[in-house]
Write a structure and sequence with these properties.
heterodimer, A: 353 residues, six-stranded mixed sheet, B: 283 residues, two-stranded antiparallel sheet
């Protein structure tokens, strides 16, 4: 059996007394788009920087294609990275920036120039090849940074929040550029982000990290529908979390009312479960469902054709509902209005407790 | 509205006036006078106003002047090269390898030499470099020497470095410390080794600061009188010594003015060329 492309084995990284990464075990498979996601300070960037050799692990082993990277200098690794700040060289023009990696590998001038231009063309900015990088727009600079990292045809590309400085429109466009590139090249992308939408839109697998540890690894769908613990459920912002004690009939007494889940739970236990915001239905009159919550509309957020409605139920429980704008036709939506929210017991996911 | 503006400009002028007066009285005025004086005539050890180019043609046609000119240029150039090369590794160390606190202390210690007068420091060097001085006494313990260090170009160079080195390290350290470290990481990431990164990335990024430090060295050394006089033995003379000699011998103030103007022009040309290069924009 061949080993995955990248293996982190019991990796620990300490900065002084602070453990930035604790006992990390992680495999990255060849050709996958892996996102490392988590709040700031969770160790995701440190993990990426260890892979690039910009930080040395305090303990453990990191292997790339079966070979240990411990002690290998950053410039001896083939792990190009795209920085959040892009880190383009301001004293070089766009083409010279792209040529940099080739020059370090000793490629001759003519071939280098041709190859750099080819990559700039491929990313749609061939016409700006001789321009000063500071005179380019954010999106163009982004493409120069990508071309610079990819021109040496590496087996893996590391990306450290590369889109976080761009405006929303451009982020969507660059996401498409990235996913298309990754599929065409068939190389592995390791992508660090704090943005759930970026990770979920592009990644094959998402690693959720918290306080230096992995909270969950899974497909975006797994993480959204079946979060492993409360941290993941809360971090994935489109979940509703309910908690309460299991009563004698097997239902859960929450502050928002007695709710049913499709799992047998020991009576008397305190449990939490999540219901994804898009699995909650809204109606004007009380529906004939088992899980019904009466709640007042607080506000709504409108993004494209999707609407997120924020409700407050009795006991102060906040509930989010996500729906297609069209599906809400005929339902009055004025703040303060009382509406009935319902969900299927099978839509719930009980968190480990 | 316009009244308000004129009030405003009168107020602004009031603040600027002292500076304008100072510069006018003590810089522009003397400079113009010196230029005028370079055309004056000296008769029977007395200077009288005139408009004749004799001082210029006599000074500039003498091999003696040009020997001194190129000697001064060469010594100042050498001081720039040595200072830059000695200061750069130290500045790199302070900028990249030590903590912010250690760097602040280092800068403080580099400022300390300026607490004492440059002249005093040069006299201290005389004690150290003399034939019976500290260094030769040390050498004699091993049965070598004594070496003549005072009244040589080596002595002059020690003086120039005393003047320039702390300032050059401070200026270089500031410009290197301001480099975006991520660019250095990016260079490593793209396969550029440590030493190569210094020359392909760090030097271009710190270019402006490095050139400004070099320009300071040049101006300070080129115009310095103390080091070549007290440590260099004044023979052959640098231009600053030549000014003193010329003005003393036979009251030749006009010819000294010619030498001074030549020095000012040289420093202006070097400084402006270097600064222009430092701030040159790419396309």
């Amino acid at each position: 059996m061949t080993e995955p492309l990248v293996v982190f084995e019991n990796v620990v990284k300490r900065f002084g007394n602070f453990e930035a990464v604790k006992q990390l075990n992680l495999n990255v498979h060849e050709g996958e788009f892996l996102a490392l996601m988590g709040p700031s300070g969770c160790g995701k960037t440190t993990t990426l920087r260890m892979l690039a050799g910009l930080e040395e692990p305090s303990e453990g082993d990191i292997r790339l294609a079966g070979k240990s990277l411990v002690g290998v200098k950053p410039h001896e690794r083939d792990t190009p990275m795209v920085w959040q700040s892009l880190a383009l060289f301001p004293f070089l023009n766009a083409r010279e920036n792209v040529e940099f990696g080739l020059k370090m590998r000793g490629m001759d001038g003519v071939e280098r120039k041709r190859k750099a231009f080819e990559w700039l063309e491929r990313l749609g900015i061939g016409e700006f090849s001789e321009r000063d990088v500071n005179s380019l727009s954010g999106g163009q600079r982004q493409r120069v940074a990508l071309a610079r990292a990819l021109v040496t045809e590496p087996g893996i590309l590391l990306l450290d929040e590369p889109l976080s400085a761009l405006d929303a429109n451009l982020v969507i466009r660059m996401q498409a550029v990235l996913t298309k590139l990754q599929r065409e090249l068939g190389i592995t992308f390791v992508y660090v982000t704090h943005s759930q939408s970026e990770a979920f839109a592009m990644a094959d697998r998402v690693v959720i990290m918290s306080k230096g540890e992995i909270s969950q690894i899974g497909t975006p769908r797994d993480i959204y529908r079946t979060p492993a613990n409360r941290f993941v459920a809360e971090f994935v912002g489109r979940n509703n979390i309910f908690s309460g004690r299991v009563n004698k009939r097997g239902a859960i007494d929450t502050e928002a009312g007695t709710l049913h889940v499709d799992r047998k739970l020991p009576v008397g236990d305190f449990v939490s479960f999540v219901v994804a915001a898009d699995l909650v239905a809204i109606s004007l009159s009380k529906p004939k469902e088992r899980n019904v919550i009466a709640a007042h509309l607080i506000s709504e957020e409108f993004v494209g054709s999707m609407v997120t409605l924020f409700f407050e139920a009795t006991g102060g429980t906040e509930i989010k509902v996500q729906a297609q704008e069209r599906a809400l036709e005929g339902i009055l939506r004025t703040p303060g209005q009382l509406l009935y929210l319902s969900f299927n017991a099978s839509s719930s996911h009980v968190l480990k407790y | 509205m316009s009244e308000h503006r004129s009030d405003n400009s009168a107020y602004a002028l009031a603040w600027r006036l002292p500076m304008i007066l100072w510069q006018g009285l003590f810089f522009i005025g003397p400079l113009i006078f010196m230029i005028a004086m370079s055309f004056f005539l000296v008769k029977n050890y007395r200077m009288e106003p005139a408009l004749q180019v004799g001082n210029w043609t006599k000074t500039l046609s003498r091999g003696f002047f040009w020997d001194s000119y190129f000697l001064t240029l060469w010594l100042a150039g050498l001081a720039v090269i040595i200072t830059t090369c000695v200061a750069f590794p130290a500045s790199c160390f302070l900028a990249f390898r030590v903590s912010d606190l250690a760097r602040r202390w280092a800068i403080f210690f580099l400022i300390i030499p300026f607490f004492t007068s440059y002249l005093v420091r040069i006299f201290a060097w005389q004690v150290i470099l003399a034939q019976q001085g500290v260094i030769n006494a040390g050498f004699s313990l091993f049965g070598i020497g004594p070496y003549t260090m005072l009244n040589t170009k080596f002595g002059t160079m020690i003086g120039y470095l005393t003047l320039c080195l702390p300032l050059a390290v401070i200026l270089q350290t500031f410009s290197l410390a301001n480099i975006d470290k991520r660019l250095v990481e990016a260079a490593h990431n793209l396969g550029c080794g440590r030493l190569r990164t210094i020359f392909t990335v760090v030097v271009p990024l710190a270019k402006t600061g490095l050139i400004v430090a070099a320009v300071f060295c040049f101006i300070l050394s080129f115009g310095d009188f103390v080091a070549p006089y007290y440590l260099g033995g004044s023979k052959p003379p640098t231009l600053s010594i030549m000014i003193i000699d010329t003005s003393k011998s036979g009251q030749q103030w006009p010819r000294a003015a010619v030498v001074a103007i030549m020095m000012i022009v040289t420093m202006l040309v070097v400084a402006l060329t270097a600064i222009g290069y430092a701030y040159r924009k790419r396309r």
